[in-house]
Amino acid sequence: MIVYLFFVATALLSGTSYFIRNRNLSHGLVFAHIALLLGLAVYLLPNLGQQLDDFFFCDQLGVMFYIILIIVSLVSAIHYITFVIDRDVRPAVQALHNAGTIFFTGAIVGVLLTSHFGVLWAFMEATTLGASVLIYHNRTSESLEATWKYLFICSIGIALAFAGVLFLGLAGQQVKNVDFTFATIKSLSGQLNPLWLKACFLLVVTGFSAKMGLIPLFNVDIDAKDVSPSQVGASLSSVLMNAGFVAIYRFYEAFSTTAILHWMNNLLMITGLVSLLFAAAYMLKVRNVKRLFAYSSMEHASLVMIAFSCGGLGYFAAILHLIMHSLVKSSLFFQVSQMHRIYNSKLDENIGSYLRVNPLGGLVMLLGFLSIIAMPPSGMLISELLMFQTLIANNYWWIALIVLLLVLIVIYGLAVRMLGIVFLKKDTANINLNGSTNFESAMQLGLILLVFYIGLFRPEIIVNSINLAIKSLPA
């Protein structure tokens, strides 16, 4: 009942926000929704590991990413207050954005907490609608083009995923009294036709690739992050990517006890490798900082798929990597907004001396860069080392070498742009020195330092939570 009340309250807040033109009250409704998220968390944590009703449950994986959602949503809401003031956003645009934010966040919650494949698909479709509203925020021709592309391609992806669910239904016709809950499908998956299960998983991975930023539907994700406000790019690169992973994970877990396990691992490995190849190639030529971070997100989504496909320790590495990537990448996107306010440009050739112009913001950029390339003491070093360890343990030496080469190319592409932005001297006569906001940068720095803390101390609560989340998967 509590979960349903949350969704009803979310719908009411989203609908009300659309009609509110008072700036402070509009922001207040977003924070009211964050308070609802916190309240639901208070209800969920004591019920960890339990089925809440026929359609929702409270498992370790969903709760971990739910906490990440709260953190990113809070920082994003604070960031948008400054964004509105700086850009003099019209009240009607702000109202629509905040309504879309609440709707989008609520849809993510549904993806994370549902225990039913049909409901999962419905909530994932809802994220497309919510994200489209956010992408169109700036009302430019570029944002309009990116929005309709996102709607069109994601709708195709969602249709493919729906076809996957239909194939699962066809497979389920062989068994009496089957429903679409995760637990039921997993318990009966050994009795289902492997061909239908393969078709289902292939279509699901293809359909949800737009959410994770993987091949074949990654382009709309890149464009969306480029033209939308930075706080939207932060959400697409963190909480939406996590939701896409959770959706794929649910199908993988349900089929993991069947004969297609090895086939699924191969599919995820190929998806990860080809996506990593595309990310590395694009990052060598991209000059737009937001697109640079978008392709960086594609790289890390690829590493997650590669690690996960290895099984065993790779499951742990994949989830740990997603958690830390969410914190680092969102902080970098938030910082880009300040950078744009100062230089009025997203092109690296127009940005320089950032550490001198905005010392705290420059520190965020520098530490964020070191974190994202997995330099010590970043916790991302741990997850990437575990990935390579798993590849080698499975005798995937040649794959490990390919991944290492592509990661080095990505690091080179990032280093050339990021170090130039932070240190390279540029003419700063025409920049807006009032564009920096230390309070925002301090929040972003806090997210990055949290990743450093995880890398240095490996908190037991995170290690145990991930182990509990993957305990049902094959060793």
Feature tags:
about 475 residues; single chain; 2 strands; mainly alpha
Structure in words:
- It is a single chain.
- A hairpin with a 5-residue loop joins strand 1 (50-51) and strand 2 (57-58).
- This protein is mostly helical.
- It starts with a helix and ends in a 5-residue tail after the last helix.
- It has a domain at 273-475.
- The chain has 20 helices and two strands.
- It has a two-stranded antiparallel ribbon.
- Helix 14 packs antiparallel against helix 16.
- The mean pLDDT is 92.
- The chain is globular and about 70 Å long.
Total strand count, please? 2
Low-confidence parts lasting 5 or more residues at pLDDT below 50?
none
Assign an overall shape: globular
Class by alpha and beta content: mainly alpha
How would you summarize the topology of this molecule?
Elements: H1 2-19, H2 23-44, E1 50-51, E2 57-58, H3 60-87, H4 91-113, H5 117-135, H6 141-172, H7 182-188, H8 194-212, H9 219-227, H10 230-237, H11 239-255, H12 261-283, H13 289-309, H14 313-343, H15 354-357, H16 359-372, H17 379-393, H18 397-423, H19 438-457, H20 460-470
Antiparallel strand pairs: 1-2
Helix pairs in contact: 1-2, 1-4, 2-3, 2-4, 3-4, 3-10, 3-11, 3-14, 4-5, 5-6, 5-11, 6-8, 6-9, 7-11, 8-11, 8-12, 9-10, 9-13, 10-11, 10-14, 12-13, 12-18, 13-14, 13-17, 13-18, 14-16, 14-17, 14-19, 14-20, 16-18, 16-19, 17-19
